[in-house]
Amino acid sequence: MRRGRISAQYRGRVRSVDLSDVIYLRADHKYVTVKHLGGELLIDESLRSLEQEFPDLFVRIHRNALVARNRFLGLEKHSDGTTWARLHDCPDRLQVSRRHLAQIRRWLGQRDRQTD
């Protein structure tokens, strides 16, 4: 059975977040920041392992970021040519790498056709 929470040690206690509350996961050096509805949590797991464990929940937008599929609102193109992800329940904008952009556009097109 698959786990439904992400947990981390914090000041001698275990803090957990429901996967349904996760907005995005962003790698920074050795750790991954879990941005969730209640704040942030720092975990010691790799993005790759989380992406492989939860391919139906998260989509990769950059080598350092996964976004919860159900929180992905759309894409925003800036005048400098960069593309950014807009997210439900979060003012943060995350850059979408050129490498992942075509895949994200295909996924968004398929998702939008399914909801019509």
Number of helices, counting only DSSP H or I runs of 4 residues or more: 2
Structural class: alpha+beta
> What would you report as the Rg, rounded to the nearest angstrom?
14 Å
Give the percentage of residues in beta strands. over 45%
The largest sheet is: 5 strands, antiparallel
Q: In the CATH hierarchy, what is the superfamily?
A: LytTr DNA-binding domain
CATH topology: OB fold (Dihydrolipoamide Acetyltransferase, E2P)
The overall pLDDT, averaged over residues, is 93
For the record, give the distance between the C-alpha atoms at the N and C termini, rounded to a whole number: 32 Å
Q: Which term fits the overall shape?
A: globular
Q: How much helix, percentage-wise, in residues?
A: 10-25%
Q: How many beta-strand segments? A: 10
Strand order of the largest sheet: 5-4-3-7-6
Low-pLDDT sequence parts: none
CATH architecture, by name, is Beta Barrel
As for the number of domains, it is 1
Give the C-level CATH assignment. Mainly Beta
SSE succession: EEEEEHEEEEEH
Organism: Imhoffiella purpurea
GO molecular function: DNA binding; phosphorelay response regulator activity
Protein name: Alginate biosynthesis regulator
InterPro entries: LytR-like, LytTR_DNA-bd_dom
